[in-house]
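For the sake of transparency, this paper describes our internal protein records without simplification. An entry from our holdings is shown next, in its original layout:
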Amino acid sequence: MRSVHVRLILASVFVVALCALAATQGRQPPDPGKALTTTMTTVNQQILDMAEDFPADKYNFKATPEVRSFAEVMVHVMSGTVYAAKAGRGENVQWSELDPKAYSGKPAIVAALKKAIADNDSTLKATPATRFAASPEPWLAVIEHTAEHYGQLVVYYRLNGIVPPASRPKK
């Protein structure tokens, strides 16, 4: 009796494994370039939405005196986006900080961020698929970096009693 149960269990496991294998056979693995481009576009749009939405009179807000202001975080994030575009084109470049003092307020930061994102988007579109298959860098590191600071900026929103754009009800 016991061996019948064992055989039944083993047969069931085998059938489930075969079904799972058959289900994955028809699907293509995700295209690395498309996945990176979609993710980079999404995170950049979220940051740009915040840059455009956050009140200009709060751009110097800091969660604590030791951390960057909202404006400084935006310029810091933009530094990564500028780096990704240049490195993605094959330029010999180091990830260096843009100086927040070079941008006089919200309009200048938003304009520069839009330009950096557009430059990065152009680089992504011009990059051959084989490049993404060989290495997801520099975009993967920049996506992670930008997403980390997105979370920081959500806190800045909440500390100011503002709902971040991505958390608002969709119209």
User: Anything to note?
Assistant: The longest helix spans residues 2-25. The CA atoms of residues 13 and 146 lie 43 Å apart. The chain has six helices and no strands. The chain has one domain: 31-167.
